[in-house]
Give the backbone structure.
Amino acid sequence: MNTSNELKPNHPSFFDRPQVHIETIPIGEGIPLGIECVSNPELGIGGAYGTWGKSLDNAGLPQLIEEQLGEPLDPAEKLNLAELGFINRHHLSAMSQDEHIDLEVQVGARFLREAIQVNGWTPEQVDGVLVGVTAPTTEDYLDRICRKAGIPEDALKVSIHKACDGSVAGLNLALNPDVPVNEHLSQNLAERLYGKKVLVGGIEGLSRFLQQARDKNALQLFGNGAGIIGLIPGKTMKFLVGGTREVFDDEGVLQVKMYYPHSPATKSGETMIEVTEADPYHIRVAGLMHEPEDDSPVVMAGPMGMVKLFVRTGVQVVRDVYDSYQKRVAELGMPGKEIAVAIVHHANYKINQLIEKHLQREGIQIPMPWLLREFGNVSAASNMIAFLRQLSSLKHGDNILFDGFGAGTYYDVLAVELG
């Protein structure tokens, strides 16, 4: 994992990148929004990613947190954020709920429109939108942003609430016909979307989510971000193998309040996923969370707790999918074809580093670049931002691995061929 120039503390803000288009959304004193569009014409894949709110580096972040908490941060409570892979975060000042809804609908619609345009499509051509959102502002958030972006009412809309795993879970649904969720639906989503124009991503207004939080680790790690990619299943991105895993976080290492409908009671051995199919065009996939006992939005055990939570099972899932991948490429007459890169959720650098080391011990060598230093942990947006940042270096015929994991605890891993 290359970190030579990526974790320097003087790294510029995302807003300072020359490719980023910046505008101000007229809410309150004005909210800066930055979007970068990326396209790889050889692959026929493009997308848009970015963030909104005030940009704070690691030196400026403690002041914001102390103002919110009304007390100073003890030096021992300050995380070494550069060591964890993060240089900047983007946050908002306090706003009303209506202002948050207005802002995030405008932001979400803008990312959808930009992703549509960079792919050379029109909104009317979009057949499906699958978006991961940890804590939606409203139950109909996805429907609102699609309508505002001009996407047809009869386009498939799938809202996925599996915390940081949301966008990779959406990609798995769009490409993998054997995803267990299909057992609870009247339609197989991958079969429905095959050959169609599809948007997949994550939109995470986490600074809103954190404004009621008291957890000092979460306040330092999370920020706003969004990443949306456009693909045509079976044409610009072809499914090879994939897998999912659910392992409930009994100890509550990462507790998250569910801001979406979910019956908290599940029987042992049953899935933690609840699927709601309001009609053929609107589907919600919601994952059970270990919620905080009080009304806090999030309570976490700290970076090392996250390592223990995600690494062991995460390595198992990747190893299982990798074994299936080896068999699959052999069946396709390409035995030994390597995976060009792994696009791994950026929870923190130490988690990804340890996952990579464990895999290497088992003889699995896959590049896992660290790519999200200017954002912090942006949950479901993470994988799609990382993919777009790697997109220009990818080639027709490359096989890549998506590795998503998040609170709950949920894992989605899949290998795909590009172009």
User: Anything to note?
Assistant: The domain at 14-418 is CATH 3.40.47.10 (Peroxisomal Thiolase; Chain A, domain 1).
